[in-house]
Amino acid sequence: MTNKEPENTTIEIIDENGNTIYCELFNIVEYNGNEYALLLPADQKGNEESEFVLMKIEEDGEDISFINLEDDEFQEVAEYIENIPDDEE
C-alpha cells in the first residue's frame, strides 16, 4: 500500500445539489491499483468530529478528476482505510 502525504492542496468539488465545496486534500491511499483521495471540507477543518469525503482519482494525461464512488466501492475502500494500521497511515 502506498500513502501519499500531499501538501496543502485545496480541491473544489460539486455536491449533488450543485453547491461548490472547498476541501483540503488530506491523504491519498492506493487500493487495488486505484488511488483514492481523502478530502476534508474546509468548513470542518479543526473540528474533532469532521467527516472526510472519499473520492476516486482518475488521471487523463495532465487532467486529474475526482469521481464519486458507488456504494459498494465506497464501503470496500472505507473498510480498507479503517483497517490500515496506525504506523502505515
* Terminal-residue CA separation: 10 Å
Would you count the extended β strands for me? 6
Oligomeric description of these chains: single chain
Q: Unreliable runs, pLDDT <50, ≥5 residues?
A: none
Roughly what fraction of the amino acids lie in strands? 35-45%
SSE string, helix = H, strand = E? Answer: EEEEEEH
The major pleated sheet works out as:
6 strands, antiparallel
How helix-rich are the residues, as a percent range?
Answer: 10-25%
Overall pLDDT: 85
The number of helical segments is 1
Name the structural class.
mainly beta
User: Which radius of gyration do the C-alpha atoms yield?
Assistant: 13 Å
Overall, the morphology is: globular
Write a concise synopsis of the structure shown:
Helix content is 13%, strand content 45%.
Keywords:
six-stranded antiparallel sheet, mainly beta, 89 residues, 13% helix, globular
What would you say this structure looks like, in words?
The protein has one domain. A hairpin with a 5-residue loop joins strand 2 (10-14) and strand 3. It starts with a strand and ends in a 7-residue tail after the last helix. The chain is globular. Strands 1, 2, 3, 4, 5 and 6 form a 6-stranded antiparallel β-sheet that branches. The chain has 1 helix and 6 strands; from the N terminus they run ββββββα. With 89 residues, it is mainly beta. The protein has one helix spanning 71-82; strands spanning 3-4, 10-14, 20-31, 34-41, 53-60, 63-67.
List the helices and strands and how they pair.
Elements: E1 3-4, E2 10-14, E3 20-31, E4 34-41, E5 53-60, E6 63-67, H1 71-82
